[in-house]
Give the backbone structure.
Amino acid sequence: MSRARLTALAVAAVMGLSQSAFAVSDQDLKELREQIRELKEQYQKRIEALEQRLRQTEQAAGKAQATAGKAEEAAVQAAVQASSRPAAENALNPGISLVLNGVYSNLSLDPAGFRINGFVPTMGESGPPVRGLSLGESELAFAANVDPHFRGTLIASVSPDNSGAQIEEGFIQTLSLSNGFTLKAGRFFSGVGYQNQVHAHAWDFADAPLASKVFLGNQLAEDGIGLKWIAPTDLYLDVGLELGRGRKFPGGPDGGRNKNGFGSSVLFAHVGGDIGSGTAWQAGISYLSTSPRDRRFEDRDATGTSVTNSVSGRSRLWVLDGVVKWAPNRNPTITNIKLQGEYFRRREDGDLTYDTLAQSLGTQTGGFASRQSGWYLQGVYQFVPARRVGYRYDRLDSGTTDLGLVASGALAAAEFPILGAYNPTRHTVMTDWSPSEFSRIRLQFARDRSRLGAVDNQVLLQYIMSLGAHGAHRF
């Protein structure tokens, strides 16, 4: 038998066996379909159960992620708060710093007779230091975070006249307010103008500008509350409101009025930004309103006898300020330039009481109104590391002062010599050496024409030494 024939017979046999093997009845097919349906339902139920478990797992994961997000946010906030705390601070160890300030003065005029003609004298010390060696205004500061919500600061100043220590600033400040808001309460330097917020040891000159002396009593520290908001914008913008007791000049009397509520208010706003890779700038506007009651000042009558007068009414002060800083590639360690200026304009209305102690011509009261202004402009140039030179020009305008007692003929203008029209000026140059960020030696010369008909040539040699932790200074 040939191979082809055998192959054909084998195929036929296999096919016959297959047909017999797969031959099923209708009943078998029905049972098979029922089993397939049951299996399908079982798998469908399993799939639905798995999907339910998956949804539950996803929900649990979402909750865990939200919790983790809150924890992360809290951790970031804690890190930010920790970053605002100097490394030397902790819950049991507040940051402590001491600033030692001393000066040697050589003055051509007696500082005891210092006065700025054309302006009502302030209730505080605004003249140059005593002749010879003296201790300047030294500071002792304590600062620490109270908890995640508050920070406390206390700065005591030691007066050079040995009158004891005074609380220069003492306030609490919030850390956890959102949306750029910060609230502080206590005693603090007011946000009016630019230089008023800067501590004396951080000034670029040994003393305050003349405008700060006559309009703010050298430096205004108020007891009150302050709210500040920093906008979430690329261009820096802040807006603030302060409400105070009116405890110091231009309010008064010294120590504050015995009344409920607030005796002074301040509104301020600042805007700033960068120009190129090396220049930064900031400009601001401020408004101070207060209502002095029996704000006393010393003057001399026509015979030269000392008299005590007082002013009651309303005082309103506007301040425009600007600062420009330049440093190559924003690195001020080698070379930098700083330009700073402020313009002040004050309006006061009310009553003036002459000779409140009735020592001269007897106590008399009449109307009082004044419109006065002043400004300064200064520049400081660091030409090599640790060495700087600077120049400042001050100018005041006594403007117009109307006295009801003089207008009515009750008293002569000679009874108010300090209020006579005069425009004080001053030129100041300085050079300083700062071997480190904690020490500075400064030599300063000023030609001061604050007093009518007299020039005071002032030479000051100053040292400033900082010990301990110290926070960064403002822009």
